[in-house]
Structures are given as structure tokens and as C-alpha cells.
Amino acid sequence: MIALSVAQGGLFGMVDMVEMRRKGLLKRLKMTPVKMGLFGVGGMMVRFVLGVVQIVILALIGVLGFGANLHLDFSTLVVAFFIGALAFNALGYLFSSFSKSIEAYMGLANIASFLMMFLSGIFFPTNGFPEWLQPVSQILPLTYFVNGIRDGMVYGSGIATSEFWAGIGILGVWGVVAFGIGVLIYRKGKVEVR
Fold first, then answer.
1. What would the DSSP string read from start to end of 59-91?
2. Structure pTM?
3. ABC transmembrane type-2 domain location, by residue (predicted)?
4. Is residue 40 part of a domain?
5. How many independent structural domains does the chain possess?
């Protein structure tokens, strides 16, 4: 649930970028010396801090309210959280770059969120999926974010495993590609708003 809440915070958190474009604020920002990529990173960092708060609150609720046993590996948790939060914020930034309205953005974020929720192994183990569906779950970023958070909070398996780093690498690629495409779309400024 921690990975899901952080992922949804990133996916849904960039809705303000769509509203700023609609009001013409992004055009005004382009006239300042601030680069749009830096502006996007600033928005991501706000959500990153909120993600840290989410992890702390949800972990405390789990431990104090439900008696959850955590086997923390702090370095694994920090790396997984950092890369995962940035990747999902980058996806939100990408969605905001080509959404013409808040409704379109929210619809796109909902579709992505629901697909990943049910196909990433949060609620159902992926090895129980039909054979044709299992490869789909292996390309979704939430699969690797969930695995990283589990490694850092539940299993305490450590940062030294190659499986952990392969998942973090895939998650990082998702983030870099999504942010890069989002920056390119914002630079072109071709999205017309209503």
C-alpha cells in the first residue's frame, strides 16, 4: 500500500501543470530564465517530500495500529523509494505535458493507475496470472517499485542483490524516458488547451 500511495501521488500530482498551462502561466514562465525541466523537477521534489511523509505515516499506522512487523533495510528502502518516487512523478509530468484538460489528465492517470494496480502484484501475485499476461506485469514500473519497497520494508533482503538492482534499473529507465519526453513536449508547446 505504501508503494501504491507514493505512485499515485506522483501520477496524479502533476495536475496543477495542466491548470497552469490552461491559464497561460506556463507561457509566462517560459519568458523567465527558469528552464521548464527545472520547473518540472521542482514540482517533483514537492511530491517527493510528500511521499516521504506518506511512507512514515503509513508505516506508523501499520506498526502501531495493526502490529505489522517490519524488517527494515534502510539503504534498500531509500534507494527504492527515491527512484520509484521520481519515476512516478516523471510519469505524471509526462501525462501533464500532453493532456489538454484536467479531465483528460485525470482520466489518463486513472487508466494507468488501475492497470498497474491490478497487474503489478500489489493485490494479486503475478505468478497466478495467465501466461500471456505475466510478461505485461514485468514491464510495468509499479511491479519493480513494489518489489523494491517490499525488499526494504518486509523482507529486509538487502541492497546487494542483482535482482534488486535490475528492478531499480528498469524503474529508473521509466523515469528518465518519461521525464525526457515530457520536457520535449513542454518545450515544443504544441498542446492546445480549451
1. HHIIIIIH-------HHHHHHHHHHHHHHHHHH
2. 0.87
3. 116-189
4. yes
5. 1
**Cell numbers that stand for 181 in this block:** 519526453
Euclidean distance between CA atoms 89 and 80, whole angstroms: 14
In this prediction, residue 158 carries a pLDDT of 74
Residue 84's pLDDT is 95
Nearest-angstrom CA–CA distance, 54 and 9: 9
Q: Identify the segments of the chain with pLDDT beneath 50.
A: none
The amino acid at 41 = V
Closest CA to 83 of 116, 133, 48, 110: 48
Distance of CA 158 to the CA centre of its chain: 22
Task: Specify whether the CB–CB gap between 130 and 140 falls below 8 A.
Answer: no
Domain, as residue range, for 11? 2-188
pLDDT tens-digit profile of 117-165? 999 988 888 888 899 999 999 999 999 999 999 998 888 777 888 889 9
